[in-house]
Amino acid sequence: MVCLLAALLSSPVLLAQTQKKDAKSGAPAAASAQEAATPAAAEAGYVIGAEDTLNVNVWKEPDMSGTVPVRPDGKISLPLVGDVQATGLTPMELTAQLTTLLKKYVTDPRVTVTVTNVNSRRVYILGQVGRPGAYPLAPEMTVLQALSTAGGLNQFAAADKIYVLRNDSSGQVKLAFQYKQVIKGRKPEQNVVLKPGDTIVIP
Prior knowledge:
Blueprint: H1 2-9, H2 12-44, E1 53-58, E2 66-69, E3 75-78, E4 82-85, H3 91-102, E5 111-117, E6 122-127, E7 133-136, H4 143-149, E8 162-168, E9 171-177, H5 179-183, E10 199-202
Parallel strand pairs: 6-10
Antiparallel strand pairs: 1-2, 1-5, 3-4, 6-7, 8-9, 8-10
């Protein structure tokens, strides 16, 4: 009987089946871990801007938790700690800063900062398009893509006199955009990737 049991346990077929079951049982856990890490990784690199909305959660401290707007001056206001600079920081960096500040008032504070509304990354489209206004800036959005989002040019648009106004360290710059030339592939360099705060003007 002992010999038979030993033979079964050492059987290559039985070992292979056992390994397959182990692999299958481990796969969902690995996938779940990867999915759980993805949002945190995506948010870790985001830099908070003015007019964003944040959710600040301090564990077991409901009076210190809640949704707060980032003011135009770049700060948020929280009970006890007062005004705290938020713009220019990632959610993880702001979490670390708030944790340090709250140690004066809370034993072992556990803080979580989440960006609930991204309002700082916008572009503005003015003039002869279907729907002028402010639009969320999608990753790698170009001038052509922004114009399409705004409903495209209307019949009165001066297509080759469009320009982008951008503020940089040297001041405001004006970037030409000749629509007809770009869509024909003649001046692709004018179809620049937009930055937060850019204004597209369609005369």
